[in-house]
Amino acid sequence: MRYIGRAISLFFRLFIVRSLKVMFLPGLGPNGKLAPAPPVVKKLENRPQIVAGALLLFLFLLVNLLCFLDIDPVHHADYAVYVVGGVLVICFLILWWSRKEITALTREAEANDCRLCLRCGYCLTGLPDQHRCPECGTPYEIEQVKRRWSEYLASRAAREIPW
To answer: Would 150 be classed as within a structural domain?
Structure first.
């Protein structure tokens, strides 16, 4: 009986867990890490978390305000549902908007031969190979910029699930 349990455990670890990793975490490099995203993409990826935190703080302050004003939320249950529903809708809209901006930015990087500023996303086509970004003033070398964008785009394409 002990051997059957070990065989099932080994089967689970070897086939099921690895299959799930391949299905849901494709595009990992040999060291198990993804290519780092440029700072402009990281900023867009962090926007939904910042907005969600601000909205949760707003809800906390709203509840404290209701308690301070002696308003019983039990008798005004509809308002609570509307407020929570509105906050959730706003969070999902911000998430959708951020994903849309990231997709547009990656398409622009592909269209401009990966010549976008890493910090602000400004198009560096036609500028010298070593210079400062005219938008944000960040110094750049075009080869490093192209390499970092192409690594990120390749890892992003490898992570996309076809279905």
So the answer is: yes
